Amino acid sequence: MDLMSTPDISGAVWVKSSYSGGNEGQCLEYTRGFVTDGVVPVRDSKRPGGPVLMLPAVAWAEFVAALERHP
Questions:
Q1: What angle do CA 52, 23, 45 make, to 5 degrees?
Q2: Which of 21, 23, 30, 38 is the most interior residue, by most CB within 10 Å?
Q3: Rounded-to-integer distance, Cα 15 and Cα 50, Å
Q4: How many domains, the chain?
Q5: Per the database record, which ranges form the DUF397 domain (predicted)?
Q6: Which of 1, 2, 16, 8 is nearest to 46 (CA)?
Q7: Are 21 and 37 in contact (CB under 8 A)?
Q8: Which stretches of the chain drop beneath a pLDDT of 70?
Q9: 27, 45 in Cβ contact below 8 A?
Q10: pLDDT of residue 59
Q11: 37: domain range?
Q12: 31 and 4 in contact (C-beta within 8 Å)?
C-alpha cells in the first residue's frame, strides 16, 4: 500500500481492545483484516463513524507489546 491509497474498511469487523476496561467510555477498537496492506485501522468505539487511524502494522505491534510489558 502506498501512502496515498487507503484500504476500503467498509466491511471491517471491529474488535474492542481487552485493555479498554469494559464500558467506561475508554474504548479502543481495531480490525485485523487489513494487516496484509501493512496497516491496522484503529478507532474510538464511542465514535464508530468518526475518524480512523491507519497505523503501520509495525507501530501497532510495538504499541501492543508496550501494553503487555506495562499492564
A1: 10
A2: 30
A3: 16
A4: 1
A5: 12-67
A6: 16
A7: no
A8: 1-6, 18-26, 34-36, 71
A9: yes
A10: 92
A11: 15-69
A12: no
Alpha carbon distance 50, 69 (integer Å): 30
Q: Is residue 10 part of a domain?
A: no
Q: What does residue 61 show for φ and ψ, rounded to 5 degrees?
A: -60, -40
Here the cell at position 41 is 485501522
| Cell numbers that stand for 17 in this block | 481492545
For residue 69, give the 3-state DSSP assignment: helix
The x, y and z cell numbers of residue 68, run together, are 503487555
Residue 23 included in any domain: yes
42: three-class secondary structure by DSSP = strand
- Phi, psi for 35 (deg, rounded to 5): -60, -30
| pLDDT value at residue 1 | 47
Q: Is residue 29 part of a domain?
A: yes
Residue 19 lies in a domain: yes
